[in-house]
Amino acid sequence: MSIDDLEQRNKKTVRALLFLVFVMILFAVALIPLYDILCEITGINGKSKKSSSDLNYTVDLERTITLEFITSTGAGTHLQFKADRSAIKVHPGEVIKMNYSVTNNTKKRMLARARSSITPGPAAEYIKITECFCFENQTFEAGETKQLEVKMLVDPALPERYKRLTLGLTFYDTTK
Amino acid sequence: MSAVIAEHEHDDHHDHGPEKGFLRWIITTNHKDIGTLYLLFALAMFFVGGTMALIIRAELFEPGMQFVSPQFFNSMTTMHALVMVFGAVMPAFVGFANWQIPMMIGAPDMALPRMNNMSFWLLVAGILMLASTLFMEGGAPAGGWTLYPPLVLQTGAALPFAIFSVHLLGISSIMGAINIIATIFNMRAPKMTLMKMPLFVWTWLITAFLLIAIMPVFAGAVTMLLTDRFFDTSFFDAAGGGDPVLYQHIFWFFGHPEVYVMILPTFGVASTIIPVFARKPLFGYSSMVYATAAIAFLSFIVWAHHMFTVGMPIAGELYFMYATMLIAIPTGVKIFNWTATMWQGSMTFEAPMLFSIAFVVLFTLGGFTGLMMALAPIDFQYHDTYFIVAHFHYTLVPASVFIIMAGAYFWIPKWTGNMYDEKLARFHFWLSAISVNILFFPQHFLGLAGMPRRIPDYAVQFADWNMVSSIGAFIFGFSQLLFVYIIFKTIRGGTGEEVTDEVWEDAHKHGLEWTLPSPVPYHTFSTPPEKIPTEHF
Ligand code: HEM
Ligand SMILES: [Cu+2]
């Protein structure tokens, strides 16, 4: 093999390998949407979506499940955030309302956003949240206390094995 | 190495010899020079990372806070890991690759010599930038080498520098990997078919592909950290609808294969050394090649065994559990083959062999603890405790690091034409082999008893074993000064013993490099060799 041949072959190899590097960079970027899609299809990470407000189920009085409400705030978010009740017993299909109180403990106006999460994750698709302050940004004046509401239903199709579900809400300070 | 230094001293420059003076080391494109640079750099970083480890062990010698602040302690665990992985273990194997691959396949040099020089200097730049974070406002990164958000986003001024250093290290590794693949594909001697290549070459070929596949992913993940912090994106920020667990998935997609980047060349060197001292061909050559490829493939589909406790669905836990356990099969094949190679061999126990045997035994132990943690329900107890610290140190220190030292003793007579002091080297081995167990074995007990990793202080119930572990650490650390002494003494003339071309009895049957003169001339195999050793097959 002559030197020129070798140089040609090396160039070809380098080009092919650089292409592989490029593919892997694309792959890394693609992992973000892929991850979301996978989570959505399998419903594994407990994310819930807004459901249409005219859902109507026949209430299943035979079954009672426990709904727990937990609240938290992100690091550096100085809000006092509590649900009125920590747990309630409900029948699948009935409309449930829960009140939350939020106090801005700082001396400044705050823009904040709550994010919801349902545990166990696979049950998330059976919890229909029709109204929630977590669907948009909330503003809190300095020292202000607000009463906020969540409205939801539990789909009676919820598999039998789920007896206790938890709705977690976390507020994050998003003031710029 | 000393070919070089000898010429330095006697100044007997001939036609194709190296550049004179210091500049030679900066602009060199010779694979042997670059190999030397990589190895010396790795050795220096081994001591930098080792010093950090001793700071950690000094603080943990007794419960309570003694020497350093918790913040600095956490910087030490983070930087120790990053320096050891990217500055010591990986460059050491690249150094071996530079020296040995061209000689093993009968090539005159690496395929892309100038790129070779650049990868080395980018590595130095990357590590210097990483080290500079130690002196920045807010301190060096302290969130662990895995750089998990949201914790890592609390790093002070150091964050962008740490991230850029990862980019530099990534580019350096990718360039090195491209070079190695091009060399192996295009520069082999005519008779050196793929299935006749020494295993060290095979393992590096596969490792190079791993590097090309994972470094871009790691670079991507840390870039997203950067934009999350400075450009208001929310890839990993729950407030903006992102997900910190996503980072863990991307990181471990890189991170698990990364641990194999450190262990596959280790397997390669062990498979090179053991047959020579057992005076037998390597048992099961082709099964070794396939097992290496299988391990590399499996390493891409098991990443979430690092994340059993993040709240995966049960199906995910089961899948990652079984997939991880599968890795034990090709790994077991390798252990079996090394043992079978030694079986009924006429073994002698020079330092390289001693380190290799210790590797086989102690790596197996690390593999077993790995299997224990692969069991998802059991890992809930072990995760983030000292048990996992013991696991990965067994797979890295008495495995990768021991084999690096074995390789250094094994090849340095060839490189320099001087013999190292066998007695001292054996003493170095026994000191290291005993102290490494005093250092890491008690960490199993600590982990099982529930001591968490990455903490500067601990409950008094853990005091005794921590003290033992720290004592082992100091013996191990200081024993390595002996290694440096032996190596430099060898470079400067060694024991004065005659070193034959094959160095080790009948080594010429095991590889092309042993058919070259000792010390190896600056340029070798300018014309490809006619014959290649066939002992392996
Ligand atoms: C039979 C082979 C192996 C198995 C089954 C295995 C399994 C595991 C598992 C399940 C973990 C996660 C533990 C946890 O976070 O709770 C782990 C961690 C780790 N393993 Fe292995 N492992 C194996 C071999 C290796 C090898 C060969 C290396 C490196 C050369 C290695 C290096 C590591 C490292 C560095 C970590 C810790 C990463 C971190 O969290 O910082 N393992 N291993
Ligand atoms: Cu792993």
Descriptive keywords:
heterodimer, A: about 180 residues, alpha+beta, Ctag/Cox11 (Pfam 04442), 2 domains, four-stranded antiparallel beta sheet, B: about 525 residues, mainly alpha, Cytochrome C Oxidase, Chain A, disordered N terminus, binds protoporphyrin IX containing FE, binds copper (II) ion
Can you tell me the number of structural domains of chain B? Answer: 1
CATH topology call of the largest domain in chain A: Ctag/Cox11 (Pfam 04442)
CATH topology of chain B: Cytochrome C Oxidase, Chain A
- Structural class by helix and strand composition of chain B: mainly alpha
CATH homology superfamily name of chain B? Cytochrome c oxidase-like, subunit I domain
| DSSP strand tally of chain B | 0
Cα(first) to Cα(last) distance of chain A is: 64 Å
CATH class of the largest domain in chain A: Mainly Beta
Report the total helices of chain A. Answer: 1
What do these coordinates show?
The complex is a heterodimer of chains A (176) and B (537). By secondary structure, chain A is of the alpha+beta class. Chain A has two domains: 3-42; 45-173, Ctag/Cox11 (Pfam 04442). Helix content of chain A is 23%, strand content 38%. Chain A contains one helix and nine strands, in the order αβββββββββ. In chain A, the strands form two sheets. Chain A has a five-stranded mixed sheet, with no helix packed on it. In chain A, strands 2-4-8-6 form a four-stranded antiparallel sheet, with no helix packed on it. Chain A is flat. Chain A starts with a helix and ends with a strand. The relative contact order of chain A is 0.22. Chain B is mostly helical and 537 residues long. Chain B has a single domain (2-12, 23-515), classed as Cytochrome C Oxidase, Chain A, CATH 1.20.210.10. Chain B has helices spanning 2-10, 23-27, 31-59, 70-105, 113-132, 158-186, 199-230, 244-278, 285-298, 314-342, 351-374, 376-382, 386-416, 422-448, 463-491. In chain B, helix 7 (199-230) runs antiparallel to helix 8 (244-278) and helix 11 packs parallel to helix 14 (422-448). The radius of gyration of chain B is 23 Å and the shape is globular. Chain A binds chain B through residues 6, 9-10, 13-14, 17-18, 20-21, 24-25, 27-29, 31-32, 35, 42, 44-45, 74-75, 113, 115, 119, 121-122, 170, 172-174, and chain B through 111-112, 150, 174, 177-178, 181-182, 185-187, 212-217, 219-221, 224, 235, 238-241, 243, 245-246, 249-250, 253, 311-313, 316. The site of copper (II) ion has 4 residues of chain B, from helix 8.
